[in-house]
TrEMBL record:
<dbReference type="InterPro" id="IPR000608">
    <property type="entry name" value="UBC"/>
</dbReference>
<dbReference type="InterPro" id="IPR016135">
    <property type="entry name" value="UBQ-conjugating_enzyme/RWD"/>
</dbReference>
<protein>
    <submittedName>
        <fullName>UB2L5 enzyme</fullName>
    </submittedName>
</protein>
<dbReference type="Pfam" id="PF00179">
    <property type="entry name" value="UQ_con"/>
</dbReference>
<feature type="region of interest" description="Disordered">
    <location>
        <begin position="80"/>
        <end position="110"/>
    </location>
</feature>
<feature type="domain" description="UBC core">
    <location>
        <begin position="1"/>
        <end position="108"/>
    </location>
</feature>
């Protein structure tokens, strides 16, 4: 709901292993995005779904809510693209411009 991503709809895939719920699902963003917590392959830095933090009682809706919060409000502690994180911290106007441009080019209109 917040700029710079609020004008687009982003596709992602949630993959469950045969060992779920003992193993966490994997979230992959299928829409390219200029975001410090999403790498160029669409992998998301989401501690909730790491083996160290995963609990078998965690529900899929919690994973989705955490993912949406992460995308909506970038966390400088959850970084897969250090260059983008640095841009967000040092040149926020440039970060926003590039994120809005990527959203316009790749996301589905909302």
């Amino acid at each position: 709901n917040n700029p710079p991503y609020n004008t687009g709809a982003f596709r992602f895939e949630l993959t469950f292993s045969p060992h779920h719920p003992l193993e966490p699902p994997r979230a992959t963003l299928r829409t390219p995005i200029h975001h410090p917590s999403v790498d160029l392959q669409g992998r998301v830095c989401q501690p909730l779904t790491t083996n160290a933090h995963w609990k078998p009682t965690t529900r899929a809706i919690q994973v989705l809510q955490d993912l949406l919060l992460q995308l909506d409000s970038p966390d400088p502690q959850r970084v897969l693209r250090p260059d983008v994180a640095r841009e967000l911290q040092e040149r926020p106007e440039e970060f926003r411009r590039r994120a809005e441009e990527d959203t316009r080019l790749h996301a589905e209109p909302r």
